[in-house]
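Retro notes, item 3 of 5
We never archived the inputs for the guanosine-5'-diphosphate complex last cycle. Fixing that now. Sequence and ligand:
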Amino acid sequence: MDLPAYTPDDAPVPEGEVVVERACTAQDLGPRLNRTAADVVRFLMQQGEMVTATQSLSDDMIELFVADLGVEIRMVDPGEEQEVELLKLLDVVDDLDDDDAPVRPPIVTVMGHVDHGKTTLLDQIRNANVVDDEAGGITQHIGAYQAERNGRLLTFIDTPGHEAFTAMRARGASSTDIVILVVAADDGVMPQTVEALDHARAADVPIIVAVNKIDRENADSQKVLGQLAEHDLVPESWGGDTITVEVSAIQNLGIGDLLDNLNVLAELEDLRADPEGRSQGVVLESFLDVGRGPVATVLVQRGTLKVGDPLVAGAAWGRVRALVDDHGNQVKEAGPSVPVQVLGLSDVADAGEGFVVAPNEKIAGRVADKRGHWRRQSNIGRDAHALSGGARLEDIFEQIQKGEAATLNLIVKADVNGSLEAVTESLRKLEREDVKLAFVHRAVGRITENDIQLAATSNATIIGFNVRPERKAREMADTENVEVRSYEIIYKLIEDIESAMLGLLAPEFEEIVTGDAEVREIFSVPRVGKIAGCYVTNGTITRGSKVRFLREGVIIWKGEVSSLRRFKDDVREVQSGFECGIGLSDYQDLKNGDVIETFEEREISSD
Ligand code: GDP
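Structure as it came back at the time:
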């Protein structure tokens, strides 16, 4: 581009606050501020930022430009303004409380200092007071459960602690009616007790104190009450209005009393919800299950959620295929305050995300797709480095050597939330003064075309932990020149990234996928075991080659193709477009729809 130098022109800038969308282009930004796209590009060029008129701008670039003009802006996420329209489409009810509606069970979260007995208390309540289960299912940890006391139900969130509670609140979800603050009578009020207290207060949620471990010899309840009073939780016995109950979670003492008091408090709060109408609620947790696909535990806050409902949760959607309750039983519906696992969603929804049943499936799909689109956009913009100077793994050393602060752009995908957190934590520890990491996107699930697209636009490297790209995504990665690295062992992943930072990353071996086959039918052959009736969708499957066995993009087994047949004959290889029978050494857990991926390791010449 050959543009004359930027000279700010005299056209008046807009008065008052201008709304600017994150990740907008020079073409969008210029006209909003009475300038042309060329003005924006020229200005940024003078600041050393090379962008085209149609390229997304980072937050920093936008701020630089508006600061120069002296305009006041409010930066919004792409889609934030459009979200209002989407909510209209979904016809969402704002007011969840309904004075005329029936009473609903309270939703209770347990908080407190580590080791004060939160988990023990939750387990004890669950075991001693579970709702009679006629179908005889086993209790399942789905993230929340219901207990009964004197014929009244109470819903408990099963993951104690204020981190999850606050993460939910950060997303605007209020999912708790009452907090039980657990304080060990032998240890007293500790830093996390105070923290939990502050979080509950910030959310304006009533608190009941459970003074736990009163069975201990050195228990001193009075001392605990004194400490609580110091933090403005004055116990009823001292003339205040904080309910305190002495319990021993381990010996099951005082638990009934605690439940009675929860019921009293719930009654005071007058919690109601309409069980009629399209259901709304909140996602408590969610993960990708091998075999079942994305699974989300939701808490219904209004209406009754039913199998077959078209549901939207953030950017995930789907027709509810099955509902599973806290006993592992399949149920047909779930009313207010009932926690259930939902199967049938397209993606893993984030915890704290609201859900709503859409008027129809078409609207559900449209809203989720639009949200997905906007969210990817805002990911690009939010990470300033991602566009201005961030680097891929293979270039990172070069950047470090230039003496500039280097940033490594990463997209991390993993099989479950736990491993995603573990990988992110370990990676963060690698950050140095001169090398920062920018997580452009982190999520649970297989590596998709969207991930590749995001990596291409944001100059990022994709790290997969126990997950693989689907075939289309892999092909796109090749054409877009996006590096995808899959790992199954964290230390190996860390070692590689560390080496890259030291300029030592020599990918000695590269894995080349040689063939893909889709499992269409399973045969049991006496003395041989299970044989997968497959259709080869890509490349060639060869006997003896190394394979990865994938379900929903998650690696569930690695080994070798031990037998390969066409009809009754043993063959050496089968080409794309043909059917065949594949035996996988000792692996037997096969399912229709699984993918068998064969690969070769080739040494890479370092020229
Ligand atoms: P959390 O970290 O708050 O979830 O605490 P846990 O429920 O894991 O309990 C921490 C430890 O305290 C465990 O060893 C429990 O067995 C013990 N504990 C919990 N409740 C009681 C109690 O009422 N009495 C006694 N003596 N020990 C308890």
